[in-house]
Design brief:
Pfam families: LmeA (PF11209). The protein is an alpha+beta fold and about 280 residues long. The protein has 4 helices and 12 strands. The chain is elongated, with a radius of gyration of 40 Å.
Length: about 280
Amino acid sequence: MSTEVLPLEPAEPAQSEPAAPQPPRRRRGPIIALIVVASVLVLGVIAFVVAEALAKDYARDYVREKVIAVLGLSDDAEVDVDLGAGSIIVQALAGRVDTVDVDVPEVAFGELSGAVRFHAEGVPLDDTAPVDVLRIDFAIGADDLAALGQGDDASTAPSFEFADGEVTLTSEFSLFGVTVPLGVSLEPSATDGALVLTPTSVTIGSETFEAGSDDDSFLGSLVAGLLQPQTLCIASSVPQALVLADATIDDAELVLAFRGDGAAFGGPELSTPGTCPAA
């Protein structure tokens, strides 16, 4: 009896579990590029801010030096400079500063002294070129106004006070050997560059006479001359480029408003006093 040997069947391979799907690889290139661009922009902004601050400091110092030179101030004088909110770098590229405001608490112009406020527009970086707009407000006290009109003899000068929008002048005179007090109320204004004080009333002793009233009495005739406008030339006390445009009372100060459009900060017209016509 023979035994039949059967061929071995190949063993079936063991089935392996399917491999887990791999997550797609992220592309980092665009992200890195965005980071680089953002960093460059941030650095650019920081650099511009720093440059703007340095430019403003330089521009303030430049304006301050010019104001000190024009007004003849000491190097340590208090001068507050405001260049507005615009970018100084952008303005410098155009060759001029849009707006300049300067406050100086103590300035002397000839016989006058007080606080000055400059307002200028279109200020060229070249100090020999004219500015578009120049406004200067000069606030003086009553003592300065008295000094302006007293001439050489201070003993004969009247005293002044400012109140209720008017200038009050007080003095006295002798009539038939009697000293009579005199008071005059005046409204300030400007005409042809001169300071004009127009009387609104005159008080002699206990009698008050209003401007425009008719009085044929002796005192009334005397007062008629006192009710005429008085003109004071102040051109010799301020730079020749400045023309008085208005005069008003603000609290306890007389504010003289000057215009100097077209003047150059570095020109002689802002450092040379004007002249008054010969009396």
